């Protein structure tokens, strides 16, 4: 039997570990052959493939990114997209697909299976950890470790100059990276998209922090929004780049803090370094196990499902369900962490 | 109300994060006072205390070890041990104890509560991750990351010299560190205490690995034992040190591999570097939350319990139950990982 | 004898190692007493001091920042500045000063010694490594390591998405960090302040890189300027923040690249994480030796000098000379490295 | 023109960076072709080669080890060794050789050039940094960083348990790694091969350290020897392994310390993790520049020389001279560092 594998959406440390796990187990235990599709859904759409066997996956475990390449191509946006994918799968005699990706990639996978009966297994991938069906997604732990190390480094500069340091981390719709790295890094203020923040409250925390004679660190998710959203939208500095969300709120907040507290404030935007490079041990473990279980789903003929982590077990959930709801930070958890604010 | 805090057993990255979480929340939310007991149970036994307030816990989050010191003192081994502890607690008007430690420390805590009604809350600590009541313990993720980085480094030497490299990691009774770091590090053989290993099988994996023209990495838990246990016990090199378990099986195995395969083999014993230094982001997160929840247990008057991780939630379990059963590696999980052997 | 110590200018990993070296050797070998002056020249100006003895320097070796605090206060900008400093030194019976800092701090030190006969010894500090009198300054190696790790991480994202990634590093007047981290990180384009860059040439390198089917990494020093400087100055995004230089050229360049090549380009501005946190082993070694030799200068009564690294030796140079000339990147060296461009 | 490249002796982080530098510059600037010889001198001896062009060196900069493999083969130990090498070079029309290695490899290179007129250029490689002709060798900085990080981690365990921790690092004949990592790691005792140590003096330092209520860290080079050498030679635990030097003195010393001070002592032997894995930024910089300059030597027809670092310049020295004298730690430098002992 021949199986296709593709990776879609933004890159994420652990993608190669998933691919390696799928191929090693598929070949050695089930005698499968594999076809690597290039650049997410563009691969099966244009029948663009790459050799995918055991030599091809040797040594990729510690490497970030994806050897298959990635894209945001959506076959449903093409009139004949689905038709062509099914023809191309048949053309190469591909009997099953393993799709590794986030909401968009798995959304396509779900429809392909549910509406067109394509035998698909999904592997969840979101560095933001915002998929409700799984406790954690790989890449998240790596991003949190990188952000935490960065915050550790900012403390000494903040202290030496008695300055406010704002660290903007990833998280457009969910504040998991900000919450985990902010707590782990000993931040004094953590701002997440789930709860609009009050700049005056932020300044109050900062001032109280300085009173305890220590310089504050503010960790803010790129998707965090102040109470009065207008402020941000009006800000010139925000639409003067290609990627507004990536370098917006942090810079804006630092300026507001300077204006309102009279203290010097500086911003560091971690950006892409959070999603690149070698995966943490946890992410290698999780990603590899996702790969091993995904190929077992294929072997069991269990399609239309996604592998997921529950506690320490890998389970299977329906693809449709998996991508249905965004997993955001529970207010009670944010409240729990807020004991360290100010 | 005044609360005593102590840390017992071997040190572990995250202990200071737990202490900080307890004190920050206890003081700010509940207005508690704290007493730090020195060196585990020796502290309350000899009334040896240290100041423990918010200034005392400032800046300790990223620091390994424990500001309270640790020991393996067991009050039940002293005729009047329990009597003195109760007197000393009364003497300083300490109304509750939070004991942070492993099997031994929590075993004492369980008996103190169940047999003598001392109001104790436990926080689990074992770098080996071998407590059945919790999904993970803090310190484990840090140890696995350190071991994985070490294994990453060994690969290049193994390849350049076509040599077998044996890496001995912690784990006397449970192979969790070996299993996780071995998988994450791309080891070709992983040996754990739960399953006696067959040296000839190990050599077979090694030989097949060399045939694929690549040098093998063997990760072995310090507590792993070969089929014929005698061999190890007979080996001179094993009882010539103070800490046999720490530098035994790895060296022995390397020599056996050289004898049986004719290939050069070298051993690296990671030892204490696995348990020291700054905690990983995950361990800071878990340890801090354990601390926050432990002091909430005190506030709820819920004693004789231990905090534990289930999925992403912190729960409470009876202390007695918590320390009842060792969590070892499930044969099915070892089997799952064995696809990468050889 | 009593000696004053101060740290001025921007913080830099290794400052605490210098302080520790001075105090350990001064107390143990020469029986000196020390006075720590707070926040650079503000300390002696306002007689703001802190205890500085062996317990005070215990455990600070691996810590970034400076336990003495820092500032950019310049006593020559105050009418009675010099007068007050001399009075305050006399007041505390301070017989010599060790000033640790960059051009500004050492410039003041040089004048204090040469014009007013104050017994001063200097220790050079510039994270940009742009002091002509010394082979290297501490902090630089740490910054280069941090930038290199970041660039390593950017490669995988660049490859997975076939995107241009621009990494802006520190270096206002000298491109040492960009040159070293760009070379060590395998960048395809490195832009430094010493040589105005031609955006079309940059785009040509990028295009040729893509032709070799690999995504380019551009490392640009914050102080790099394009041939047509106007372009930058006109750009709105540049003066909309407090710290223009810190987040300007990288963003601007990414937009130009997108315009001219049609390829997606993203920028990461490393900012403060380059100058914070624990020093590299080399910086701890260099900073500690600077401290040991600075206190020996005091013991030798050799004032008005600065310690410096020449090869593997610590030497002494006149303060005046030391701060006279900026050490910029030699065109021949830039040429040597350019073999890796494109 | 066709040029052969080989790497000999123990592996070392930076070997691949040298190879990449040679090939990139040789092909792009001089239009050379390259032949990679496998496993040091075994390659030209048996005409065992591997393709070496620009695609072959892509992506190897951050990788430890050597893509050419290595060995300790010495052609002078074979009757017809030299004869065969010259025939094989002629056979493949190889007009020049670049030999990357330590004393042995470069010793062969020197004789090949001086006695047989083979056009050879040498690149020095010794992780121990013990070559007199160059300020530093690549790999050393990486090893020192790894050892320093390990020592950082040992501190917290030492403190928490008030235990002596002995860390054995590489260095058979020279103590550079022990000296640099010991100083950078804040060790309380540093023992090097250049100066026989007195165990009672070591115990005195340890006891005084404990008196200052802090647990001591002892860093010992694998080649360090006590005053009474017999003691070590007699020790059973020393000749029971394949690699005596690698795990001998540290274990022995810990036992002696326990005997003489009554304090618990533990040993960590870093072993191979010091020489594997990705090179530090400094080593990538140095190794790359060595490669660039080595190929320029070939272009200049300047043979029988070795590239070397002097200050910040790459210079050329005669091969014979280069390997003549071992660079050991100057007693004055050891004395300088000893202020931190005890």
UniProtKB/TrEMBL annotation, chains A, B, C, D:
Key word Magnesium present: yes
Gene3D superfamilies: 3.40.50.450, Phosphofructokinase domain
Cofactor needs: Mg(2+)
Residues holding diphosphate: 10
Broad class of enzyme this protein falls into: transferase
Presence of the UniProt keyword Transferase in the record: yes
Example GO biological process: fructose 6-phosphate metabolic process
Predominant location: cytoplasm
InterPro entries with a match to the protein in the record: ATP_PFK, ATP_PFK_prok-type, Phosphofructokinase_CS, Phosphofructokinase_dom, Phosphofructokinase_III, PKF_sf
Notes on activation and inhibition: Non-allosteric.
Gene Ontology cellular component terms for the protein in this record: 6-phosphofructokinase complex
Site residues (Important for catalytic activity and substrate specificity), renumbered to this chain: 104
Entries under PROSITE patterns matching the protein: PHOSPHOFRUCTOKINASE
Compartments where found: Cytoplasm
Pathway assigned to this chain's UniProt record: Carbohydrate degradation; glycolysis; D-glyceraldehyde 3-phosphate and glycerone phosphate from D-glucose: step 3/4
Keyword terms, alphabetized: Cytoplasm, Glycolysis, Kinase, Magnesium, Metal-binding, Transferase
Family to which the UniProt record says this protein belongs: Belongs to the phosphofructokinase type A (PFKA) family. Mixed-substrate PFK group III subfamily.
Protein name per Swiss-Prot or TrEMBL: Pyrophosphate--fructose 6-phosphate 1-phosphotransferase
Protein's organism: Streptomyces griseoviridis
Gene: pfp
């Amino acid at each position: 039997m021949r199986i296709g594998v593709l990776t879609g959406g933004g890159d994420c440390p652990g993608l190669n570990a998933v691919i390696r796990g799928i191929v090693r187990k598929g070949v050695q235990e089930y005698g499968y052959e594999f076809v690597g599709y290039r650049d997410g859904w563009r691969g099966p759409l244009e029948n663009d493939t790459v050799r995918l066997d055991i030599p091809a996956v040797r040594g990729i475990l510690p490497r970030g990114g994806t050897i298959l390449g990635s894209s945001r191509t959506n076959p449903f946006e093409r009139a004949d997209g689905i038709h062509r994918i099914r023809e191309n799968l048949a053309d190469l005699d591909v009997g099953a697909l393993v799709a590794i990706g986030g909401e968009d990639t798995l959304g396509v996978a779900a429809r392909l299976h549910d509406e067109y009966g394509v035998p698909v297994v999904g592997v969840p991938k979101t560095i933001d950890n915002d998929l409700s069906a799984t406790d954690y997604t790989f890449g998240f732990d790596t991003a949190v470790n990188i952000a935490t190390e960065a915050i550790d480094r900012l403390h000494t500069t903040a202290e030496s100059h008695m300055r406010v340091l704002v660290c903007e981390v990833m998280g457009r719709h969910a504040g998991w990276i900000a919450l985990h790295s902010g707590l782990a890094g000993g931040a004094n203020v953590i701002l997440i998209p789930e709860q609009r923040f009050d700049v005056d409250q932020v300044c109050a925390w900062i001032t109280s922090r300085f009173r305890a004679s220590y310089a504050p660190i503010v960790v803010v998710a790129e998707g965090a929004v102040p109470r009065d959203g207008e402020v941000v939208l009006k800000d010139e500095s925000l639409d003067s780049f290609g990627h507004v969300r990536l370098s917006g709120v942090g810079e804006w907040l630092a300026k507001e803090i300077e204006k309102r507290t009279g203290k010097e404030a500086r911003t560091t935007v971690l950006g892409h370094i959070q999603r690149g490079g070698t995966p943490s041990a946890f992410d290698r473990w999780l990603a590899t196990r996702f790969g091993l279980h995904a190929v077992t789903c294929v072997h069991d003929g269990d399609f239309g499902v996604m592998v997921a982590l529950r506690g320490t077990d890998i389970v299977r959930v329906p693809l449709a369900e998996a991508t249905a709801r965004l997993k955001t930070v529970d207010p009670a958890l944010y409240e729990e962490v807020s004991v360290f604010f100010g």
